[in-house]
Model the fold of this input.
Amino acid sequence: MDGRIVIIDDDRELSQMLESRLSRHGFSIAVCHYGRDGLATVSSDTVDVILTALNLPDTNGIELCREISTKWPEIPVVIMTAFGSMEAAIAAIRAGAYDFIPKPFDFSILQLVLSRAINHRHLQKTVKRLSQALEQTRSFDELIGESQVMQAMFSKLMRIADSEASVLLTGESGSGKELAARAIHKFSRRSRQPVVAINCSAMPEPLLESELFGHVKGAFTNAHSDYQGLFLAAEGGTLLLDEIGELPLALQPKLLRVLEDHCVRPVGSSVEKPFNVRVIAISNRDLETAVREGAFREDLLYRLNVITVPVPPLRTRGTDILLLAEKYIELYASRQNKQIDGMTNGTAQKLLAYRWPGNVRELRNAMEHAVTLTDHKKIIPDDLPEKILHFRYDHTLAIGGIPGPGELIPMAEMMHRYMHHVLNMVGGNRTLAAQILQVDRKTLYRRLHQQNEEPASPLSTSFLGSFGA
Done:
């Protein structure tokens, strides 16, 4: 059981004993011998529970409990009462104490009381985070969306934020995967600790190994001093491994060992250093396909994707496109000191018709382009980039065409075409396609197998051609 406990007691021998025994059981302990010092610790640090004596040199536990309950009502206070005084216990509860325990006490009972208090504290934190998310149903931190797929993703992100499980975020480039990763960190217990990000495709293998795991002085040329590496730099927080699918194959077993052992050995060192970090991996590459092609280790994939969250491409999010466009118009109008009140209906139609291969990143750039060029009070179609302004999309061709009198087809065939259309629109992401189709992945696989085919790559020309793309 983890949790930070502040012990307030002027009995130094008892305090030392409690600190030693509770630390061995996984608790983080701070000891204060005066009430005022305890209050200062609470006001300047993250605390899960306060364990205080009833009698203190400068105050008493009842008054201390009352003050804590007023200033920090969410922090449970457990009071140690001498000789099992019922009057003192009742007074403590009335003052807002979570529980009390009589002296001398059984340590196992004390541990149980403290564990319950910490669980109570964690539950309060979770409820508070959920309440904050519900107050902003259109957003999750910096992610914005009213569509069903985004609301489902927000709900999943909130549920996993408070866990310690490794997360794999998948999706197309520009869809908002890093924003989702940072939102997970922000709403987690690790939010007060650092979040560190690295792009695994941005540097050669030797440099990447040193950047991740650190190195000692003299490990290689230009290693003029020790470097702790990002795993240790993110201690207590979250490490974001972006473009994990591009991690060099030779480095993958080393990363797997680090994740399994929770220890890192700097380059050039024989000493392993433990770390406490949550890992969130990000990929716009289909890692299952990479495994089949021999470009990614299967055991590493299993270690990273304890929980997989597909981030939907913008083209599947309906009117979220307009919601985001309005946000970026307001942002860039403010930056450029322009008075712009949204967009015209014609502009909205153009934005909804476009397929957004660059996703949210492309939309943001398009809105900056439009705000910069416009001299109108609203963004008009002519303010948009040329490729959006002149884009033409035939919706009837998207699912293989609406059959004419000479080509009437069974409903099953139409459903089959639509299933492939959805797979195409989500870039071949089967998990997200199954979610949109409202079937489970096994059902999707079975229906594809019945047609004696596998979901094709979104880059396959034959696959795209079957939908008139």
In short: Confidence is low (pLDDT under 50) at residues 395-399, 453-469. The chain has four domains: 3-127, 161-310, 314-389, 396-465. Residues 107-135 form the longest helix (29 residues). The two ends are 55 Å apart (CA to CA).
